[in-house]
Description:
This protein has a six-stranded mixed sheet, with helices on both faces. A five-stranded mixed sheet has the order 3-2-1-4-7, with helices on both faces. Helices cover about 60% and strands about 5% of the residues. The model is unreliable at about 1-80, about 840-855 and about 955-995 (pLDDT under 50). It is built from 48 helices and 16 strands. It has about 1300 residues and is mainly α. About 60% of the residues are buried.
Amino acid sequence: MSKSHKADRGMSWRLEVGEEIVEEEALSLSEPTFEDFGEQNREPQRMEKGINRQNDMAGVMMDELPCLAGTVGIPISSIGGDGEEVAALVAAIAAVGVNALKRFQAEGRIADVDTAIENLRQAVELTPNGHPDKLKNLNNLGISHMMRFDCLGEIADIDTAIKSQLSAVELTPNDYPNKPACLSNLGNSHMMRFERFGEMADIDKAIESQLNAVELTPDGNPSKPGYLTNLGTSHRMQFERLGNITDIDKAIEFQLRAIALTPNGHPDKPACLSNLGDSHLTRFQRLGEMVDIHTAIKTQLSTVELTPNGHPDMPGRLTNLGNSLRTRFQRLGQIADMNKAIESQLTAVELTHNSHPNKPACLNNLGTSHLTRFERLGEMADINKAIQSQLRAVELTPNGHPDKPLYLSNLGSSRLTRFYRLDEKVDIDKAIESQLGAVQLTPDGHPDKPMYFNNLGTSYARQFERLGEVAGIDNAIESHLSAVDLTPNGHPDKPMYLSNLGNSRVRRFEKLDEMVDIDKAIESHLSAVKLTPNGHPGKPMYLNNLGTSHQTRFERLGEMSDIDTAIDSQASSIELTPNGHPDKPMYLNNLGTSQARRFERLSEETDINKAMESQVTAIELTPDGHPNKPMYLNNLGNSHLMRFEQLGEIADIDKAIEIQLKAVQLTPNGHPNRPMYLNNLGNSHMRRFERLHAMADIDNAIANFEQSALSIAGPPIFRFRATRAWISGLQLKENSFNINTPSLQPQHTLINLIPELVWLGAPVHQRFQTIRDVVGSSIHEAVSIAIRAQELELAIEWMEQGRAIVWNQLRRLRSPLDDLQDTHPFLAQEFQDIQRRIEMSFLRRDMQDKFESAPASLEQQAQAHRRDIQKREDLLTTIRGKDGFQSFLRPEQFSVLAEVCRDRLVVLLTVFGEDCDALIILPSRSITHLSLPNVSHEDISDLYTQWESSRATSLRNRGGEKPALPHVDPRPGTQWDDNPPRTLSNRGEGPAHPDMEPLATLLSDLWKKIVYPIVKETEAGRRDSARDQLPRITWCPSGPLSFLPLHAAGIYGSNPQDRIGISDFAVSSYIPSLMALRSNTIPMGPPSILMVTQPHTPNQTLLPGTLREAEMIMQKATLNDMQPRINHLSQSQATVSAVMAQLKSHTWVHLACHGTQKFPNPMESSFALHDGHLTLASLMQNSVGHARFAFLSACQTATGAQTLPDEAMHLTSGMLAAGFPSVVGTIWSIEDRVAPDVAEAFYAALFEIGNKSGWKVKPEPAYALHSALRSLREKTTDRDLMKWVPFVHYGI
């Protein structure tokens, strides 16, 4: 008689935990800051290895034969004698195999299964076809290979098992009584191979074979329950792969029939009950019906009670009971279930010998239960035991075993959880290492591979959130996308994978602000919702995530459909979440935030009332001591503030202050959220002051802002905003009570925060975005206050810190961090890591709640953040103690700036409100302050509008030619009158040409209001007696002044005798910042010139004038006694690689081609060459050797971005930062026929200076450009202003 091998496979268990996003709101005096929980991730996914099997074997009824202990591999050649003797010996060999297999089942030693296989293989080979024992031996040999495969995972074993069992089936007639056993065992082997490789053909064959076994077996046959159980198990596995609910229903149906057919007291009854419990657990995980989990526990408890002590299946049954208890705990939260689960699984581990193949599974499941209890209670002992158990499971599992990837993935999940708590980088690194190993060890097509990709993506996402490295979120999206792509439609886990993919895309959108990410995030979340049936426990989470994504897009685009959809989705999420569920407060908070957002837009009272109702409920459902409670209080307070601003009820502002004060009081010092809560409390006090004018309110507001600003714990962006509010509060108090507060401490604080706010470790485009959106005009305000206080050196220092912030970080091709990396790489890496951790701490202020049921307490979070801050300060002290790094990340003092400006006349211009000031650094390094009383910020804005209008009117394409112009020397100096000379009103020739009238008016206004007073104050125009040339003014304008053509200021009419301007009295240069005047020693000698021309750039308009330009330059060069070396690359010669290679060996570069400026990432600004674009990034990443000078004969190379006036976002400043100390560029489009004339005159002057001195005197490009443009002006009329105005000089 034959028995079936029960192949009860382990079920998979997946953790569902919430993830929330906290949304940042720009904080100002009028805007409260809300905190949102946005997303909830159902991750990481942990899978359990159930090990309960009914270990029956077919055809092993050999009790009457002797056991040949220790006999292995009797050689066939040694067998002799008659047939009966041979048959007896073969039977004895088979008996040795069977007995060894029984010992393996009981003790788990691999040597026993090896003995079984060797003896049964010989028995099969020695048994002739047609002999009745042939079938039995084939079947048992197949079972032996199957069991060894289950332990070691060798593919050859499962293939041999199927081959042997298939032979047994084929050799067995349909009416033979053992045929059903052979079919069932063959089906079990196919099922095991399906588990390993996920090939649907295997599970189909498993079900087909097992169904045939059932149909061939009459009711009453003692083997039928086993066949039914195995068939049910295969249907359950197919359900887990495809998600078809009929499969799990059939599994339970067949297993119920198996139980009904098994009498009480039968040894197989416990196994049947255990399998039924597993199927109910699986259906619960899909549908969430509590009856299923209760039934699972009840049946598995009966299984344990019916299993005698010492039974080899007891550990597996205890483990499965623990799995079900843990699952119910996660749903109901009753700690007794969790404690019983750990107790059961700990007993299972203790009952299992270390060498038993099921020991790793027992350890893995025990570790998972400890992890779950840690997530609820937060005891570190639990997470440490989880990692210890799972690490031991990995170590006990040989390479190649099919369960090793599972154990690695679960170990990674536990390390990830400990990373959330302890913030040790080693944990996240090892989590990724383990989960990456799980992916790599899993063959393509395996049904668990998507899960491993999902878990790996989760770890990458958390690495990004903590460290801020974009590569982390890119890897997360790639992994989550693989999980989605590898999961068939209809699979129950596909919604989870889609939701996690959407969450990672939201993260990247928040980092990079690329709309495609948020659009695809919404698409993924919507698919997750649609694929999830009503009643599924994960549906509320997916709806919440969908709502949060829509809210995020609303914040970016302002489309009302997004906020409406967000509210609908979040409301549905709440309706589907039962009372008592731990995530319900989070969903309510998110809904309240979305309703408040809609109120801000539409001002409908219903929305703010509903928002407050949701937020109040969230608070009431959150126990005291929960780390999210202050956040919920903060948001409710903000809603009261918003309603006060709408309706004006004093009760609302009183309530806002009361609630926000409680949020502050519940948040310990050092917590990264505390500055935000202080800010919001200050805003509310400010609002009440504006209404009631009580000094206590303004004092409280200022105190809260000051405390927030000076906190070292908060993120720089919030401290910066708090500082601005602090300054505004002090000004309001001064104006209201006529109380003078002379301290500049708030301004000092604001300026000192800039290096942290615009951190050089952030991507360049992100730094520019921060300057635009956060810094704004606050630096101009601080500078204006310092000037009013007569702190002129301080004002200059602050101007320098606020101008060209990014270019200053990139000057000399290298940042201080790069220098540190070269000399002290470990310090540099440590500093970058801690800086990112501090930056990301605010974004993950709710991180523990996202992924843990027992988040770190507020005090624990605060302590961790304080440790990071202290570590950063200690690192800065260490770095500044190293040679050459004393000023690391410190702003330059005036003494340094004055030294850079030595022997120069530098004019810094600033405007704020009604005040426009010039700070003039004289060659003597003293400072002169000149107030320009007739100029306000509004006036400068009007001038800028005129300039834009003039440029639009005069815009032309480059084309045509014009005769060359002679070189003309500079004009002599002029004596001064008290009034501006030759104003527009006393011109002899009437107004300028109508097309140029706006530009002429602009230049006249600039001359009269700004430039002439400065020239008069500095007595510019007095010739340098030593050098017999005009003096030079270096302009460093800020704000909207940066866009104005100061170098062309003057009065221009039809009669040349009536013209007068700055060029008559001084040579003009520009700098983006004072530090641009610092340069390395420039070697003397004839220049080596790299000339690049592109008259016919692919896909660009033609520039025929560039060739004539090159010819003229080379002609001028040949007139020199010491001729410069010129290398001319044109057309196909001028490739990106060729130009880059030649740059290193040339001191001058002339680029006559198309130029492209890229906003908001100027590092991608470029020059169009034959085969691509030569970007600033590539220039700065490569040494430019002994660069002296660059001439950018292209359009708009010195035109900045209107939204970032102080950043000089153009190619000309970029070339300065790339290492060229002197650059000629253009502030607007230039005519192709004019550019060669300017270049010819320019180089003629430059070569003349060099030739006269034998190249022992450094040629000054600023004077050469001045000379060239003066000759051009004298040969043109008032209609031709835009022929020469665009050309400018930058640098030294």
